[in-house]
Amino acid sequence: MGKLGDMADKAKEMAKGHPDQADKGVAGAERLADERTNDKYDAQTDKAADAARRSYGGSGTPEH
Questions:
Q1: Is residue 47 one of the residues assigned to a domain?
Q2: Is the entire prediction scored with pTM above 0.90?
Q3: Which residue among 8, 29, 52, 61 is buried most deeply as judged by most CB within 10 Å?
Q4: Residue 29 is part of which domain span?
Q5: What's the domain count of the chain?
């Protein structure tokens, strides 16, 4: 696996160990994307954030 894949695996493992912090990071990234696009892609960012949370067992509670 390449460096990017290794980094992604490390990030997932860290998120699984610290789901509350990961949830905050996902919420922040989602909020930033929504702000930068004037909520044009809100449904897509919601879906992506939910998928990210499921990947590490996060709370699944979006923080808008």
A1: yes
A2: no
A3: 52
A4: 3-56
A5: 1
Q: Give the per-residue pLDDT at 64.
A: 47
In terms of residues, how long is the chain?
A: 64
CA-CA distances (angstroms) from residue 30 to 1, 3, 40, 42, 59?
Answer: 28, 25, 12, 9, 15
- 37 located within any domain: yes
DSSP conformation letters of 1-64: --HHHHHHHHHHHHHHH-HHHHHHHHHHHHHHHHHHTTTTTHHHHHHHHHHHHHHHT-------
Answer whether residue 53 shows pLDDT above 80. Answer: yes
Confidence band of 59 (pLDDT split at 50, 70, 90): confident
